[in-house]
Amino acid sequence: MKKQSDKEPLIINEINVRSVDRSRKDIATWRSALTAAESVYYPNRTRLYDLYDDIMLDGHLSGVITKKINAVLNKELTFEVSGRRVQKMDALIDSLPFREVVHTIIETLLWGISALEFVPGDSLSLQKIPRKHIKPEKGIIAFEQNGVDGIPYCNRENIWVMGCDDDLGLLLKCAPYCLYKRGGLADWAQFIELFGQPVRVIKYDSYDDQTRAELRRILDESGSSLSMMIPRQADFEIKDGKQANSDGGLQSSFIKALNDEISVTVLGNTETTNSSKSAGYAQSKIHQEQQFEITRADMAYTAAMLNSPAFHAILRSYGYPVDGGRFIFAKDMNVAHLHTRIAIDKELSDVIDIPVSYWHDTYGIPEN
Length: 368
Known about the structure:
The chain has helices spanning 27-37, 46-55, 59-73, 90-93, 96-111, 171-195, 209-221, 249-267, 281-306, 309-317, 335-349, 356-363; strands at residues 77-81, 84-85, 114-118, 126-128, 134-135, 140-142, 150-152, 159-162, 200-204, 227-231, 325-329. It is mainly alpha-helical.
């Protein structure tokens, strides 16, 4: 990579970054944003990505996404050439910029596309390009988030755009659940406000204005609970719906169902995040194995991206020795699975010759 003085200005300094649209959003907003993003002639993801930013305020969604990303970030990663670990790359792998690269790779699965701009220098340094400015169908980084003019990135050595052009990410599926959940929480809050405290009903004679004024004063000075004043001659009845939903269980089960859908969408299961009444050891074990498979897929995707020619070329421009090498995740051992497998392998070893490399690869035994 050439020195900054010999290159064009950084793209991140050329674009006009706008604030996230925090206006009220509902299912109609999601539908219209999806339609705009999937437009054949004038695709625009701006509104959809504003929606993604907004639903990321959901605590459950943020939690399962963090769990998904950390499952990859916390795995041991090494760089090997011809099966031997390159110690010089360990400092790079442990650095914050490299962890940011891995973080962004996993985020690409959620958002559909990501882009990093690497700052020329002596060590790895990068800037995230706002996704609303990435126009993959035109191959440009737009100056304005809704604009069609921008800077082509295909031939820029220090720009790495990840993801498929037509992929809108897992957050597309999570968005309706988060929006319904937001409305459900609002309904639950209203239910608590109305029926969380006793309703005070005072009746008065319609012709007695003095008593009416005195009762109003008493109600105002005796707390903020819901209170009503009606003429004694009037017929009054509260239809509170508490016979079928006396404790707010309807709202609670609705929100739990939405959280479960979010967990399944992001992690592939529910029991590793929340426990259910029917949860047991066998069910939790199955769900854990399902999540392990998804984590393995995320690790394979991350390794493929790290070993792509584009990223190797970027690292090579910083002077890192990447020629002929690969980033490799350490094997994540499932002890229960290996306990069963080694019993089978020991019996097979009495029948056929098993290469030494098999034992090293299967059980993570380092070679001398």
